[in-house]
Amino acid sequence: MDDLEEKILKTLEHVKTELAGVRGARAHPALVEEIHVEAYGAAMRIKDLASITIPEPKMIEIRAWDTSLTGALATAVEAAKIGANPMVAGDVIRIALPALTDDRRVQIKKIIGNICEEGRIALRQERDQTLEKMKRQQKDGEISEDDLHRMKDSVDEAIKKANDTIAEMKTAKDEEIDAA
Length: 180
Description:
By secondary structure, the chain is α+β, with helices and mostly antiparallel strands.
């Protein structure tokens, strides 16, 4: 059961991180920090190569620690299709986020829905794996049938709470997009 709770927390954290990377009403470092850049012969995240600041509510600035990577960072941001084009000014990359159109809001809400659905699928898979493991334990005589039913109820309750948390995250992000 502890293993399941740990996996649930990881799934919820992953969904939260993914949703933070979806553009909302304001600029946020999470929009760009997980974008991968080809640097030093490996794919690295922007947050590992540069400082990311928010000088204005609709502006992101990226300043590479190694100025030779500025072009690669700008190319990676452009390829990520976050809904804004990067502008390179010396060793600083500026990304001005335009106002959201109705069409873009619909697209973003679909992305949010897909992220949340992936989270729910991951939770279902964890539940199924845990239940299968518990059934094997019952079959091997390690736990009784009554224990199996009690544990199954606990697993179902934990998954239900996690699904409710994902639904709350989705609602909050949808409201943020509507307010933008």
